Amino acid sequence: MQKIPVSVLIQTKNEEASIEKCLAALSDFDEVIVVDSNSTDRTAELARSAGATVVNFTWNGEFPQKKQWQLQHASTRHPWILFLDADEYPSRELLAEIAAIVSNPSEHRVAFDIPISYHFAGKELKHGHQVVKRTLLKRGFNEYKDTGLMKLPVITELEVHYQPETVGDIGRTEGLLAHHDLDPVRTWFDRHNKYSDWEAYIHADPVMMRTVRSFKSGQGQRFDVVPFKPLAFWLYSYVVRRGFLDGRAGFDYAVALATYYWQIGLKTRELKRNGWRLADHA
């Protein structure tokens, strides 16, 4: 069978628990590259054993971050790029859809938003809030802009929670990308505690808030201006989007993310009380 002419770029750092499952689901693609951030476990070894190319990335704390660095520096065989995390893999429906997209000579869209099939607390969530990521990109038409985030005290090497700027038409797939984190649930809270720090610094500065908002998805931009976010999100995810149909996992996920938005608000209010502004720390 002819391989799908897409270069898959997988972001890793100490992902030995997930990398083999991820790579096993990517055999239909012509090129798979693991971009590893100096893992101290067997991530790179397992990736090479599975036939993937491994490229090491060491962040210098400045722009560009990891994904934009790859768009600028990673050598790939194909113009279409699929960015994945090590705990993500495409459904069979998504594989077929991507193959049709990139083989269509009249395809005018240059980026695709892909809805996520999320797993939480060991269960696939079929209802509730759904994340969408712009993760299928055509080279030359997409760029993660320098938004000034490098000046924040809590910035990380990987672009999170904002989309690349796309010059051209954007599509959305019907097929889903599975997100199945095999780490203990405490790591979800560890990550989101850090994310809430990052979001709080952004929300505390009006100029930074407007800049970052412009690079979020339409869904993200609308939710940014919703009042009483913790309660609003819980009602949206658990009631409106019928998260209750996912049982206890649906309830836990709605509560966990509502708590995340509560953390952002609480930390933002503290920063504002203390008069924090990005310009004072540039």
Task: Walk me through what this model shows.
With 282 residues, the chain is of the alpha/beta class. Helix content is 38%, strand content 22%. The strands form two sheets. Strands 1, 2, 3, 4, 5, 6, 7, 8, 11 and 12 form a ten-stranded mixed sheet that branches. Helix 1 links the parallel strand 1 (4-12) and strand 2. Helix 5 runs parallel beside helix 9 and helix 8 packs antiparallel against helix 9. The longest helix is centred in the C-terminal third of the chain and has 27 residues, at 247-273. The termini are far apart. The model has no long low-confidence stretch (mean pLDDT 92).
What does the radius of gyration come to? 19 Å
What is the chains' assembly state? Answer: single chain
Spans of 5+ residues with little confidence (pLDDT < 50)? none
**Shape designation:** globular
**Helicity level:** 25-40%
Largest sheet data: 10 strands, mixed
Distance between the termini: 54 Å
Structural class: alpha/beta
Sequence of secondary-structure elements: EHEHEHEEHEEEEEEEHHHHH
Please tag this protein with its features:
38% helix; 22% strand; alpha/beta; 12 strands; ten-stranded mixed beta sheet; 282 residues
Architecture blueprint of SSEs:
Layout lengths: L3 E9 L6 H6 L4 E8 L6 H7 L3 E4 L9 H8 L6 E6 L2 E3 L1 H12 L5 E12 L2 E2 L7 E7 L3 E2 L21 E2 L2 E4 L4 E3 L5 H19 L2 H8 L4 H7 L4 H12 L6 H27 L9
Parallel strand pairs: 1-2, 1-4, 2-3, 6-11, 6-12
Antiparallel strand pairs: 4-8, 5-12, 6-7, 6-8, 9-10
Concise structural overview:
This protein has 282 residues and is of the alpha/beta class. The chain is 38% helix and 22% strand.
